[in-house]
């Protein structure tokens, strides 16, 4: 794994503040999404059962953080692999109506719930695809994003056939062991989120380019 080039930066206060502003300017729809997530979570398991509203709000802020990073800003087509209940894809689609999102999960009932939420929220920039990410077919270059769903080497090998321009992954700070077995040298930027708040301690956003 030494052949990969890894750099580390901190995410600035301004970036966290800009994310809060983005949340505030789409508050009504984001709060509606949280209501939907709780409603569906009572029926099927999307997030942990006893999770508080405050924690879910933190997950939405966390989801929106990547909107401040250049790979997200410059790409119109985005695939969220292992989206579960729609994180980070739904908050990003709400706040970026000009971008197109594919939300992917291997579990069909999760995808059905996400489809209902998307319909309820009136979002027309989301397509849902229920299969393993390894079987996705897509010809247009896109940004691959994923929050706490895969080890880096697993996601890398499952998507090697796809034309992703970069991956942005929501990881813990210590993800380097997950690079084992990846042969081509990667350029990796690790953004340490620890400065954000207690919620972000030990968390990182990881940008990977091949
Ligand atoms: C820990 S959950 C994370 C969900 C969401 N990203 C979040 O942050 O709340 C991981 C998700 O990855 C999905 N998953 C696991 N293997 C997958 C695969 N091969 N292809 C697509 N989705 C997969 C699971 O069904 C699950 O919903």
UniProtKB/TrEMBL annotation:
- InterPro entries attached here? rRNA_ssu_MeTfrase_G, SAM-dependent_MTases_sf
List the record's Gene Ontology CC terms alphabetically. cytosol
Name the Enzyme Commission number(s) assigned to this protein.
2.1.1.-
The residues that the entry says bind S-adenosyl-L-methionine are 82, 87, 147
Question: Which enzyme class?
Answer: transferase
Q: List the molecular function annotations (GO) for this entry.
A: rRNA (guanine-N7-)-methyltransferase activity
Alphabetically list the UniProt keywords. Cytoplasm, Methyltransferase, rRNA processing, S-adenosyl-L-methionine, Transferase
| The keyword Protein biosynthesis is assigned to this record | no
Among Pfam families, the record links this protein to: GidB (PF02527)
Tell me the Gene3D superfamilies matching this sequence: Vaccinia Virus protein VP39
Q: This protein's superkingdom? A: Bacteria
The protein's predominant localisation is cytoplasm
Q: Where in the cell is it found?
A: Cytoplasm
Asked if the keyword Transferase belongs to this entry, the reply reads yes
Q: What does this protein do?
A: Specifically methylates the N7 position of a guanine in 16S rRNA.
Please give the family membership noted in the entry: Belongs to the methyltransferase superfamily. RNA methyltransferase RsmG family.
HAMAP family associated with the record: 16SrRNA_methyltr_G
Q: What is this protein called?
A: Ribosomal RNA small subunit methyltransferase G
Q: Which organism is it from?
A: Fodinibius sediminis
State the gene name recorded for this protein: rsmG
């Amino acid at each position: 794994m030494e052949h990969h080039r890894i750099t580390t930066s901190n995410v600035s206060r301004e970036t966290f503040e800009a994310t809060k502003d983005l949340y505030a300017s789409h508050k009504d729809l984001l709060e509606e999404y949280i209501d939907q997530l709780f409603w569906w979570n009572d029926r099927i398991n999307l997030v942990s059962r006893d999770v508080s509203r405050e924690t879910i709000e933190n997950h939405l802020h966390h989801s929106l953080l990547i909107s401040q990073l250049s790979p997200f800003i410059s790409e119109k087509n985005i695939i969220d692999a292992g989206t579960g209940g729609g994180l980070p894809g739904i908050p990003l689609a709400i706040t970026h109506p000009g971008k197109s999102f594919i939300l992917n999960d291997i579990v069909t009932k999760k995808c059905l719930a996400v489809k209902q939420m998307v319909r309820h929220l009136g979002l027309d920039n989301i397509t849902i695809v229920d299969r393993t990410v390894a079987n996705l077919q897509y010809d247009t270059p896109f940004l691959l994003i994923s929050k706490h769903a895969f080890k880096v080497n697993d996601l890398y090998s499952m998507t090697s056939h796809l034309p992703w321009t970069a991956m942005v992954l929501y990881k813990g700070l210590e993800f380097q062991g997950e690079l084992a077995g990846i042969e081509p040298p990667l350029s990796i930027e690790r953004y340490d989120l620890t400065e954000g708040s207690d919620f972000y301690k030990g968390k990182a956003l990881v940008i990977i380019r091949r």
